[in-house]
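Student: Send me a single protein entry containing the residue sequence and its fold in token form, directly below this note:

Tutor:
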Amino acid sequence: MMSLDKLNILIPTDFSANAWTATQYALNLYADRDCTFYFLNSISLAHSDSRSYITAKYLDTLAETSKNELDALKDRAAQLNNPKHGFEVISTSEEISQAIKRAVKINGIDMVITGTKGATGVNRYFLGSNTVKIMQSLKSCPMIAVPDAHEFKVPKHIAFPTDFTRVFEAKEIQALLNFADLYRAHIYILHLSLQGGLNVLQETNMRDLQAHLVNHQYTFHWMEKSGTKSDEINEFVVDFDIDVLAMVNYKHSFVEKVIKEPVIKKIGFQPIVPFLVIPE
């Protein structure tokens, strides 16, 4: 849960252009907050077909390169001369998702901010394999996936799609409110429906959500589902000038469907704004 004290922000990086875009987004997003930013690079070769042929000398070279590039990234970020910001680096040979889980626990991370794809990302797919792994494994803090070449815009409008079929936990909504509080953002609660009204369970869950949102700016919006859910969401993002798309990642949720690798190419989900993923 994000506190009002100094924040700890983790930025996984492979030193790609997309990773730098995510870094710029993070530095701008928290420009007015006291933060320590942790840059993490993994040199894991866990899935390399040629792992058995890798020499210790080569691994040492990879580790040295990782450390040097992390130090250069730290210096580049520090050139913005924000006295509220401090920087640390983490170079590891651990697999990326496990390395992030460990870093989150050890350093009390409040938010993970990553690019949507890395240096080898395929343009037609929104989520790269590392981003998918992080979303699947990260259970203890929220994360933001920043689209390639995205230019920072103050998040004043947040879209929060829901079907009201599930009770939201207080900690899930608090993560959303913590983010909204950064810039006193308006929360647009979007319900995509195949039918006109809500059933009794949905009505109850909607009222419960309203109770969580007291003292915050919010509105409810209904869209009749006529196409794919991802297309409907992106249409709403454009129509309402949405700055950030926020969703809770729970079992059988839309987020879970998106990040399951066997179906990700079929769904073709490509948010055009940063994607805030909140763990259940």
User: Anything to note?
Assistant: The two ends are 12 Å apart (CA to CA). The domain at 157-274 is CATH 3.40.50.620 (Rossmann fold). Residues 160 and 189 are 5 Å apart (CA to CA).
